[in-house]
Amino acid sequence: MTTATTTTTISQHDFYGDDDGDSETSISVSVIENMKEEYGLFVWPCSVILAEYVWQQRSRFRGSTILELGAGTSLPGLVAAKVGANVTLTDDSSKAEVLENMTRVCELNNLNCNVMGLTWGVWDATIFDLRPNIILGADVLYDSSAFDDLFATVSFLLQNSPDAVFITTYHNRSGHHLIEFLMVKWGLKCVKLVDGFSFLPSRKASLLSGNIQLVEIVLSCGKSAA
Ligand SMILES: C[S@@+](CC[C@H](N)C(=O)[O-])C[C@H]1O[C@@H](n2cnc3c(N)ncnc32)[C@H](O)[C@@H]1O
Fold this sequence. Notes:
Layout lengths: L1 E4 L2 E8 L11 E8 L10 H12 L1 H4 L3 E4 L6 H8 L3 E6 L4 H13 L5 E4 L16 E5 L8 H14 L4 E7 L5 H9 L2 E8 L6 H4 L6 E8 L7
The chain binds S-adenosylmethionine.
S-adenosylmethionine binds next to helix 1.
Protein name: Methyltransferase-like protein 23
InterPro entries: Methyltransf_16, SAM-dependent_MTases_sf
Keywords: Methyltransferase, S-adenosyl-L-methionine, Transferase
């Protein structure tokens, strides 16, 4: 369902515990989007897929400390908060409108997430205090000129929390090779790689397109399997 007010819309995202939509095991998240502005004010397909993964693995997320990078409209982090995670949502520190929208979206869903600016490759004091169990990032690998900064930040956060994992969804436009190369460069390794459509319910898959992959990444000297 989408409600329109000028260029701003509120989209509703439903997650069902089983195929018949049993309300006992279902959640709904509302997201404020703005179609004409920033990348971070739109729910991208990678976000729909990562949010579904969080929902399907909700027992893993319940009680965990989650950090979402480049969260934008924040659907995966909001689902994690709904299932009982302690969530910090972050985006580029210079994107005040995106950060304000993240706060509004938390209020809309009655969720108490932390919202903060975190620009990849920038070492503000706040980043040193972050100790997530799980780092999320949907469609954060879209501009190759920013890949090193993103991986530098992910590598730093994983070294600060060596048992943590980075779970990201991305459009696989030119093969997995560049990401493989950067993982080696930044002391990281892939412990899981799946087709993003392989676990998506057909009613959601039919609305999306593209070659989207989900990877779980850890420190290469850390744990070996997720
Ligand atoms: C394609 S959008 C994805 C947004 C959201 N995760 C989703 O999938 O709907 C990329 C996001 O990364 C953020 N971003 C881009 N460059 C960044 C940087 N250098 N540091 C932090 N965030 C950045 C953008 O503001 C935007 O929210």
